[in-house]
Amino acid sequence: SHVIPNMGTPSAPHLPVVAAIREEIDIPLFHAGRIADVATARHAVRTGLVDMVGMTRAHMADPYIVAKIERGDEDQIRPCVGMGYCIDRIYVGREALCIHNPATGREETMPHHISKTDGAPRRVVVVGAGPAGLEAARVCAERGHRVVLFEAAGKPGGQIRLAARAPRRQDIIGIVDWLYAQTRRLGVDIRLNHYVEAAEVLAAEPEVVIVATGGLPNAGFLSTGADLIVTSWDILSGAVKPAATVLLFDDHGNHEGYSCAEVIAESGSKLELVTPDRALAQEIGGTSYPAYLKIFYNRGVTLTLNHRLTAVQKRGDKQAAMLFNEYNKTTVERAV
């Protein structure tokens, strides 16, 4: 996680080390390490810090970086946001995919270059302007179709916009910025603040409808107390401020819960993170999970494994969380 700097670290954090090496040797220097954008790469070469720059993850987000520079389309480069999804996957034996570019690693079936349709342009309606809806609208428009994109919120981005509220993950807003800019460049009819029902969709006379409305937080697994809890959306959006003592239950083991836990811990709350898993951060890769654990240990977060939240009850001015251990079939209670 230090050698391969990830989201939440400065751009090109190892360039000072390279500069120190440059002062001592006179052989050509080649360096790679979170140099994710052309401006930073250009700076490193022009100032003589390096002779050549490696932009590995940046080329996974957009393998046509050099071609776009050569033809004057530098502003069209799909940016790497430093998520580390690509490299974290290969460390657990999976293919190297990109969180931002769905064609990366799937080139046999999903080309990077979108060709024009061979048939007549169609009228396409996309419902939801999160990353999936924006990408669907972009591809359809690149194909030459006439696209209307409906979004209930006043801004595009969906849950990416919410996830980017966590300070260490703010760079992922670059996904939304690029996709939205592309849809506007391609002439997509974008209608924000539109919570559409079937009648309005049909009024657009679509030949194709793509529903990309995402999901909502779900507390339906609780036997009681679903009305007493707050969700990660509430915390990350700022709608609810973390209380003095907080219990966060996470059964995904991924960034959604852990970024929320990080925000709560950094706010000064006394936090207990509870998971039914037998290990922490099971879905978060090797370049990413250390940052969370460092914060949790520095902030004194209590980490509880092998327990599942089953119910929440009101107890005076506190809440009682019931935690069930699936191995010895016991329930313990936490007051928060």
The proportion of residues in beta strands is: 15-25%
Extract low-pLDDT stretches: none
Query: Level of helix content?
Result: 25-40%
Spatial shape? flat
Terminal Cα span: 33 Å
Which class best fits the helix and strand makeup? alpha/beta
Whole-number average pLDDT? 95
Write out the strand line-up for the largest beta sheet, numbering strands in chain order.
Answer: 5-4-3-6
Characterize the main sheet.
Answer: 4 strands, parallel
Number of helices, where a helix is a run of at least 4 consecutive DSSP H or I residues:
12
What is the string of SSEs from the N terminus onward? HEHEHHHEHEHHEHEHEHEHEEEE
The value of Rg in angstroms is: 23 Å
Number of beta strands:
12
